[in-house]
Specification:
By secondary structure, this protein is α/β, with parallel strands linked by helices. It is built from 7 helices and 11 strands. The chain has helices spanning 18-23, 26-31, 65-77, 86-89, 96-102, 195-199, 201-214; strands spanning 4-12, 34-39, 53-59, 80-84, 104-108, 113-120, 135-141, 144-147, 152-158, 172-181, 184-189. It has a 9-stranded mixed β-sheet with strand order 2-1-3-4-11-10-9-6-7. The longest helix has 14 residues, at 201-214. It is globular and about 50 Å long. The two termini are 15 Å apart.
Amino acid sequence: MTTRRAVVVRGGWEGHSPVEATDLFIPFLKENGYEVTVSDTTASYLELDGVDLVVQCVTMSEIEDDHFKGLEAAIRRGTGFAGWHGGIADSFRKNVDYSFITGGQFISHPHGFTDYRVDIVPEKADHPIVQGIEHFDVHTEQYYVHYDPTNNVLATTTFESHPDYPWIEGAVMPAVWTRTWGEGKVFVCTVGHKLDDLETPEVRTIIERGLLWASK
């Protein structure tokens, strides 16, 4: 079996447990034939030739221009890019070109930690990332995002009213999506603030499938 290469880049805000969270998925990648390199710096984006998959868990923080250009060029050539929650959807806020790649940017979680349901989009029920999953419930941050209409949305979540923002009642937000960037595939799951979120069977399954899907 041909060995594939994955680079796991982790850091930024410690509240998302970037080390512990990514450690949950590294054994899965290795079991599926990946040679895994772990990095705590985006300087690794300067050396992505031959890399099949980048798994990123870097919340907020900043990215140097040449590091971003290395990442963008690699994805454009076909390297997959995948992640969850703030590690991919709330990274490098000052770099709007980065958000163009991911197709969405975290804006708020108005209800804080709350109970909510994630619904699989019926028309996408046969997609390999969500196949066999109808919906699931979580108690965690519900991400309100600004998102690209060209995303392939696989799952959504619906917001309840909030006393400070009553107008968000009924707003349907993407919770899982894919997109392409040049020859590369991008996977985003907005669920995953806490380690136990990532251990939720449906969340774990979706992310594991998303990592494989995004790879070259």
